[in-house]
Amino acid sequence: MSLLPTLRAKAALKNAFIGDALAMPVHWFYNPSDIYRAFPNGIEQFEDAPSFHPSSIMSLHSTQQGGRANKARNSQKEIVGEVILKGKRKYWGSANRHYHHNMKAGENTLNAHCANIVLKSALEGYSTDKFLAQYINFMCAETPQHPDTYAESYHRGFFANLEQGTPPEKCGAITHDTASIGGLVSVTPLAIVQASMGESIEDIQTLARRHLYLTHPDEALAKICDAYVELIYRLLHRKRDNPLTILEDIAMDSIKLNLPLLTSKKRSDMEIVGRKFSPACYITDAWPSVLYFAYRYGNDPKQALIANTNVGGDNVHRGFVLGAIMGLIEGAEITPWFDKLANAQTLTSTIDKLG
């Protein structure tokens, strides 16, 4: 592969982890004014997770399965604390507990750590069995190998099914939020590595769908996954095409979204992501939100990630996907942010294996 696509691929991976860590302190803050109350200038750099989370409903989430708590199932084994997140069940019972309790500036969330597992698997030669074994071992470690205190619904559902004897390849759980932007996080490194290796769009789409269904079995999300793979491929291998034109094409083809029209009225980011589109995780709103930020700030990756962060909602998972897109557009990591990531050194050694 020529130098330019390699630089784009590496930048995409690095900026994805930046987007995750940048948004972590205000992940699922659903009122942007709460972000500016906690951080008067908004998030402009990596920050520690604050002790108080005004929008947290972590205490309502089930620790035994995906979704919300169900009192009728309290006799079940605790997935959180006994199977995954060992030693961290105690953080789930308090009101206004931050989802990423006590995490420090520059640390990545659990889903980004899982994306790193996919990245390593892809670089070694991806297979479903290999990924599942690595994922299960990582999540069930006696001493958690990550700093996070929260596991999304899909993790809890997967391991609840696994505990009941379901084969790992069929443990993907269906809940109210299966079709969420978080499903594209682990697809990102797989698609980038496969595209870097010269695989066809069609083959990458097939592999990405198969991987997606291991944890997020949803056809509507899979269709967006196809569009995302195409976007990654076209941005990575472009020659004379304007990246904004590629974004316009993907937005129109995937969801009939007219990006030039959307941005022509000069509305604020909060009017677009907060009013027109929900800042929540659901792919129906998160995908157009990501495309909007990438298009509006196409020549300014740093500002794109700051803007995404400060509208709140599921900004962490949008940020991972958006960071990858901005890296593919710019072909350079955002400095000095990457070097300030807690895992910058180990990420660099992994990403450099791309060549």
Compose a concise summary of this entry:
With 355 residues, the chain is an all-alpha fold.
Please tell me about this protein's structure:
- The chain has 355 residues and is mostly helical.
- It is 53% helix and 0% strand.
- It is built from 16 helices and no strands.
- The radius of gyration is 19 Å and the shape is globular.
- About 1% of the residues have low confidence.
Unreliable parts: 65-69
CATH topology: ADP-ribosylglycohydrolase fold
Distance between the termini: 9 Å
Rg measurement, Å: 19 Å
| Quaternary organisation of the protein chains | single chain
Total strand segments = 0
- Overall geometry: globular
Amount of helix: 40-55%
User: What's the CATH first level?
Assistant: Mainly Alpha
In sequence order, what are the helices and strands, one letter per element? HHHHHHHHHHHHHHHH
Average pLDDT, all residues: 94
Q: Indicate the proportion of strand residues.
A: under 5%
Characteristic terms for this protein:
355 residues, 0% strand, ADP-ribosylglycohydrolase fold, mainly alpha, 16 helices
Strands, helices and their partners?
Elements: H1 3-23, H2 32-38, H3 79-83, H4 110-125, H5 128-139, H6 153-163, H7 187-196, H8 201-215, H9 219-237, H10 243-255, H11 259-264, H12 269-272, H13 283-296, H14 301-310, H15 315-330, H16 344-351
